[in-house]
């Protein structure tokens, strides 16, 4: 009795029986050859090598079934990998798996001819082993691709949880452990950027921006939360122009950069300032893109952000009030005079050079130039917020 195999010649039932009986020996010989050829394979634990042996034994057994019905080749080869330990793809790479398949195919080619009844069957078995090894290699690639997709999906869910935790200000311990699982350095400085998501093909755009982050040696978390895109960048920006390569990830509209904080555990502070700035940036139509949240303090304070009010008091009103030389009165008079230096001097009954000196001191103390329109707005709002805070006994 004969059975039509994967080639033009039939295989006898006796040959198939010999193949079935020899399957264990073929698998053992294959693993022994793997150990002889590859030092990395010898370094695997006994359990890990046993997992490879299990896959090899299943592959040999399926080879016999495949000889009977080659139409089932894909199903059978994939089933061989389903018998493997679930973490096989974690400790044996795809390249290493292909090397192991090549060794097993070589052992098959050497030992299968001895199991054939005649020359015709030897030819059939040799050709079949080559075709089957190819099917096994494709099945391995499919298994690794599936594992990569699963890891990618899990990483995406975990990334979304970390970003959401940063935006909500979750507890430090859970956030850091999840971030570490994504490969981020929790102790590295962190900066949060927020803006509109891209209108089309966000996965491709975000993949490009992740690649840019990796090339600059930074980690990055990306999250799309409704109508906003959030980037959490690990690592301190190197220059004022540094964030500009990141804004390509965003769609049209403003992009706000939160302050850089010392570690990922404090990223929620950067996120809070960035979100506050995004809500208030509409009040500054000509704001640069991206704009630091620290440059939106007047708009944020007008929108009711208590953190912005506190920063304005600390940066403007408190240091000016503590300084000598009538700086607060000079600034009030300068603004009341419409920024005209001589008119300001007349209001204060001082020489214009005195006013110039005091304005320079104000710029040195606050970092804001009273004659600059934008800096003047920050100073005026800062003084107003400071007076309101003082009236409520807050400082």
Structure in words:
This protein is an alpha+beta fold. It has three domains: 2-150, Globin-like (Orthogonal Bundle), CATH 1.10.490; 174-294, Alpha-Beta Plaits; 305-391, PucR C-terminal helix-turn-helix domain (Arc Repressor Mutant, subunit A). Helix content is 63%, strand content 8%. It has helices at residues 13-37, 39-42, 46-68, 73-82, 88-91, 94-111, 119-168, 172-181, 202-215, 267-280, 297-302, 306-322, 327-336, 341-348, 352-366, 373-391; strands at residues 2-4, 10-12, 190-195, 219-225, 228-234, 255-257, 291-292. Helix 7 (119-168) packs antiparallel against helix 8 and helix 13 packs across helix 14 (341-348). Mean pLDDT is 79; it is low at 1-9.
CATH fold-level label of the largest domain: Globin-like
The name of the CATH architecture of the largest domain is: Orthogonal Bundle
Sheet-strand content, in percent, reads 5-15%
Q: In angstroms, what is the radius of gyration?
A: 35 Å
What spatial form do the alpha-carbon principal axes imply? Answer: rod-shaped
How many strands in all? 7
Could you give the order of the helices and strands? EEHHHHHHHHEHEEEHEHHHHHH
